[in-house]
Amino acid sequence: MSDEGSGHAVEIQLRWPPFDPDTVVAQALPLATERFRLTENSETPCEIQIGSKKGFHVKRHITPMKSGLESCLDWQTQTNRIPRRIERARTGWFLTPNPTHLLSRRLIKFAVIGIIASLAVHAFEPALVESGLVEGPFAGSVRLGLLDYPVLLLIFLPIFFIPIAMRVVASVWDFRRTRRFRANAPASPELNMAEEIWTRSALELQVNFPEVLPDWTSVSARVQVGLLNPRRSMLLHAHGRKEGSQNPPGVSTPLRIRQYAEAELGIGFGESTPLQGPDAERLFLSPLPVLSRGGMVPLSFEGESTSLPMPDGDWPGSEYHPLFATHWEVLLRIERERDGPLIFVQPLLMRHDGTACIIDEMPVQSGRSELADS
Hints:
Number of helices: 7
Number of domains: 3
Structural class: alpha+beta
Order of helices and strands: EEEEEHEHHHEEHEEEEHHEEEEEEEE
Shape: flat
Distance between the termini: 58 Å
């Protein structure tokens, strides 16, 4: 007699990179596991292994279950169209952040180290002066009003505010060039390609520019593929947690502002771009946490056809599931004489032959736009 709870399930295991993957030890993060019931109407997905089990990775495979299958959700994934929320957030024109944002982020850690060092020198001032390691005037204090302040602190504190001032200036510059772009937004280019595009063959593309502005100097294109953030509710369930309880390591506190949740396409970390605003007004492309880029190919503004190579690795086709979503897109980068490069993004619906996809290393990147290469 067969068990009604037996059958086959799609099992997904993942150790997902946090907003700042370089700040954590990947192997120390917990592994999330979720199973979905395969029904007679379900299409069996391909097996996937992206990344090493010792680091950030995603693994999907078909596993037999002798019991407990009735408690699993049915396997359903979207492969025949791109969700509207993805098209809304990753289609059209985008600007790149001012390079000053990156410079200020790199400088601020030196200012913090200087402040901590000055306080440490002030705390051990008598011993350092007596041992001769530090001269008295260098480790002394300066009276301002009724209080004494360490000399080193007065040196490093203004340095601490320099990156903040740079960030403010860069944000104002971003805001002004955003307004200039909106006042004279060019017509979107037309991307012509085959109706069916397969992951293992180069993309034959023709780009027609209805309008070319005088300050445009060159244009290039590439194909890129990435993984979207899992939906928060699904990720928490895979970790065995409930909303409102303590978050698993690597998962952020939820944001209550709608535009951030929509813009992040998943968990909603916030601060992905230096200048935030409502989704309909965003002009900075939020980085995908996992992204692989194909080679950049120069184009001309005359509408010539070209062939774009695929990113390295055997990536699955376009697939949008709450826990595992693969997203493909074409990115055009237009160099301009002023106001920085201009980006145009067009999502792709890629097909896959159904064979197993194995990628040895997961290409993760920071969730901040100024740290991600556009």
